[in-house]
Each structure stands twice: as C-alpha cells, then as structure tokens.
Amino acid sequence: MSEFIFKFMLASVFALVVSLSTFYYKFVINTLSWFSPDWLSWNKYSETMLRALEKKILQIVKSAYRGWYVDIGPVVGPADKIWTISFNTESPNTPLVLLHGLGAGVALWCLNLDAFAATRPVYAVDLLGFGRSTRPTFSTDAMEAERQMVKSIEEWRKEMKLESFVLLGHSMGGFLAASYAISYPNHVKHLVLADPWGFPERPPEFNELPLWIRTLSYMLQPFNPLAGIRVAGPLGPWFINTLRHDITKKYAAAIEQKDLIPQYIYQCNSQTPSGESAFHSMMSGFGWAKNPMVKRIDTMKKDIPITLLYGSRSWIDHSATDIIKNKRIDSYFKLQVITGAGHHVYADKPEAFNQIVLEACAHADNISQSKYLALMPPQYSEEVNQTESEADSETIQQSPK
Fold first, then answer.
1. How high does pLDDT run on average in the chain?
2. For residue 150, which of 131, 122, 172, 121 has the smallest C-alpha distance?
C-alpha cells in the first residue's frame, strides 16, 4: 500500500507543478485560440481519436462484435447513453456483463474477450461518465452518486432485455457490481469481484502516516484523482506512460504499438471528469470508500454466489475478505488469489483470470468444469488447463441455490 501512496502522491505533486508552470502558457494559448486553429488547444481530447484507438486495440480480438450506444433515458442527465460492445449474443448460455474500473474503458478487456465469448454472450460497457458514454453531472453526495451509477446499470439492463447474467466488476466496477447485486438481486446469477475497490473500512493507521503526506492528501482532496492527466494536456500520454509504464507492458505481447494503450487511457480521461467526479464523491482518501461495502454485504441475498479474486501483488486493501466470509457463511463464496498479478489482474495474468471467470460462468450455467471445457474451442480449453496452477483457491460454500 505504501508504494501506491508514494506513486499517487508523486503523480499529484507532478500535476501541481505542471499546473503552476503551465498556467501562464495556457492563458496565452487560450487567448491565441480566438485567432488560431484548433491545434493550439491545450486539451487534446478527440472523440474521433478515441473511437479509432478503441477499434485499433480491439483488432487483436478475433471474435466478431457489435458496438453501439444504448439510450437509457434521463437517469442522471437529460439523455444518457452507454457505449456497449457485445459478442456471441445468439448463445443460449448465461450472459456475462463486464464493468471496468476507474479511468478505464471497454478496450482494456481485449486480452479476455475471446475466451469469454467462446461459450456465451458477452457485454462490455463504458460506465456512465466514462470512456465513450455520455458524461452527466453526478451528485456530490457519496450514496446518491453511487445510487445514480447503479441505476444507470439497471436502466441499461432493461434496455438490453437481460433477465439474468454473471456480473463481473474490476476495482471501482467491483464496488458498483456489489451495490447493483444488493439493489437488484434477481438479475445476478453470479457475482465476480476482481480486485474490488471500496470494500474495507478506512484503517486508523492511515492517520499515522508522515505529516507531509497527510497534509498533501488534505490539500488534494478538492481535486479529481486523474486531474493530472488533463493538466498535462498534450503531454498526457507521456505522463501516463512515465508514471505507469507497467500498464503498457501488460499488453506488450499482444499489441505491438507501444503508445496505443497510454493514448487510449488519455483519450478516455482527458474529457469532462464526470464519472471520475462521482468516484471522487464516493472515495475517502482514494483507497477507500466513504460507504464501504463490508458494512452492507450481509444485506445481499444469500443465494447470490460470489467469486472474489485478486492479484498477490495488488495495492488494494483486502482486509475485508475474512469479514465477507463470516457474513456470508451460508452462501457460495470462492476466494482466488492469482500469484504474481497486481491490481490489473485481468491484464497481468489474463489466462489465469479467464479461467477463474469461466469457472464462475460454469457455476452459473449449472454444469461441471469438465463439461464446460468440452464445449469450448480447443485453444481456450487448453489455455485454461495450462493455467490452473497460477491461482490459489479457497471455497466456502453451501448456498441454497
């Protein structure tokens, strides 16, 4: 956790320095922009560029897919739309719905989509306020912002006419997936939480950090967590690649163009920080939620199976795991730790991650793993068998399912 805090503080300090050093420059640029072409604009967001980058990244996915905007009506703004991509929608098996984390988008699932779509319908969305979805103004109240996000997912489900599905959420998406399962339990056949954010309570030892860190953290509270990307302007992709060069490396084996992922992340987050502002309202010190899920997990219907997975090297606080076990002692609960993976577990160890998710899907379909593997194309069933040793698991079960 200390390494993450250091990197976060470093990024924040960098953002402040850049902000101060570029203030005069931006003033001059904005003045000149009245008389000059668009290339003088500091913010280099382009809807066309984001669409092109997403398409280029998804070229590594072999499965055919469809992308479109789902109109969910006036959930938060007057006309909200959620960008959606779908695969294998003709399959009769339980659909799988993917919710990304903070600052991400549908294209970052590119290492997982083929395996998931081999046997079932798959739907990946840009959450409302993120990626290519519309960007309304969310409430600044933590619970209301969460309710709005969850309501947008439910309205999307209604428009898609999905009765039940496996719901997979990563990081912030895991927090929202759990909240959705509490609010709309009849639609979730299996809940998969991939390194979820916002579950434990904020630990008291946070107050024992050095005074300068606590002071800086307090000073940065008014700012959105990814503000540095926008402050950096056209240097944003470099800023992302410098501070988080590991993200590019995660995709290096599949994507040859090294700047593609940083460019995509920049385009996703150089826009109006709508969903990011909602996250800012929900967070307490970035690493924790103001309304942690561990206080509510016991209100979730006991017949909803949960698979919790995370990377052994993740910075996320997993201290709530034992509490969740105890609160759901009569329910299906499976814990999986992927050796060597960090927070972005779906990209760090995609084969092992895919295997765990497919097992959860098999459970939702009420078929054994051996029968499930027999239904998969040979390349994916072999992949699953080869990665079984990468995940350590513990199952606490006896759900009345």
1. 82
2. 172
DSSP conformation class of 58:
G
289 near 282, Cβ under 8 Å?
A: yes
Q: Could you tell me the maximum CA-CA distance found in the chain, to the nearest angstrom?
A: 69
Q: Which residues contact 47 (CB under 8 A, 6 or more apart)?
A: 132
pLDDT at 243: 72
Q: Distance of alpha carbon 399 from its chain centroid, rounded?
A: 28
- Report how far residue 331's alpha carbon sits from residue 303's, in angstroms, rounded to the nearest whole number: 6
What is the reported pLDDT for 5? 43
- Residue 367 is classified by DSSP as -
Residue 367 φ then ψ, to 5°: -130, 155
Sequence-distant (≥ 6) Cβ neighbours of residue 348 within 8 angstroms: 250, 311, 338, 340, 341, 342
CA angle in degrees (0–180, nearest 5) for 262-290-101: 25
How far lies 359's CA from each of 64, 135, 334, in Å? 23, 35, 11
Token reading at 164? 């039940």
Report which of 177, 167, 176, 172 is spatially closest to residue 195, judged by C-alpha positions.
172
Query: Do residues 296 and 182 touch, judged by C-beta distance below 8 A?
Result: yes
Q: How far, in Å, CA of 107 to CA of 131, rounded?
A: 10
SS3 category, 161:
coil
- For residues 274 and 224, give the distance between their C-alpha atoms in angstroms, rounded to a whole number: 10
pLDDT in tens, 224-282: 767 777 777 777 777 677 777 788 889 999 998 988 999 999 999 988 899 999 999 99
Please give the helix or strand (H or E) that residue 189 lies within, else none: strand 188-194
CB of 269 closer than 8 Å to CB of 276: yes
Of the pLDDT bands very low, low, confident and very high (cuts 50, 70, 90), residue 37 is very low
Cα(170)–Cα(192) distance, integer angstroms: 9
Strands 122-125 and 80-87 turn out to be: antiparallel
Averaged pLDDT, 290-296? 95
Reported as type and span, the H/E element at residue 190 is: strand 188-194
Q: Please say whether the beta carbons of 12 and 228 come within 8 A.
A: yes
